[in-house]
Here is the input.
Amino acid sequence: MLAVEKHVSESWCLMYIKRWLNAPVQQPSGELIVKQGKGTPQGGVISPLLANLFLHYALDRWLERTHKGVEYVRYADDVIIHCYTQSQAEQVLQSIGERLQNCGLELHPEKTKLVYCRDHRRQAKHKIVKFDFLGYSFQPRTTVSKRTKKLFLGYDCAISISSKKRIADKLEALDIVNLHYKSLVGVAQHLAPYIRGWINYYGKFRLSAMNPVFQQLRKRLVRWARKRYKRYKTSVNRAYEWLARVRKQYPSLFYHWQLGYS
Here is the structure.
């Protein structure tokens, strides 16, 4: 509330925020449970905003004041701290742990780790050289030099394994095989918002890493065709050949087809 009062002067607004923070939780049975402990209500509309405001002062401003040579990236409660050496990283990590403890928070014991960004310039050995952030996996990857066009070891990001699994689960939930459309056009229109959204987010870097997702989609489209058209029920190969012909005739039917992926 100290942070809120710094930015909000209206007394009626402060009153409602205090009520929100102290509101009881209603169970599905209708039972009201009085708030236990600290923090903002889980699922509350302004809880993410209040958490960000708290962390702005508990972590962001404190880092800028006490560790001026350290850069950081924070999205909600996911944070990456950039350090130059292992000793600096260890010192900063200990310092952050103490700071958060003083603010009534704690670092996640399993998710918090030191990562060595290994590439062609940093060749030392470290047991952890990979981390996930916002659905992307950052790790050493073979990269083509823009200047020399030769391969070298870089440190880059691409869609993470867990993100690909979530998309695969969503494809399963969409139940493409049982979509009741008369033609593939209807299926394409139904899936367009999902495909476009996945590509626009996860395809910003190394779109080719999404190939397994496109292959999963392709298999489901073939299964749809085999169920929809009798002439393909007994032949998987003919169904794949049919889908290839459709792609050649209508290359803009699916969004990933437009980008050259089958």
Notes: The longest strand covers residues 136-144.
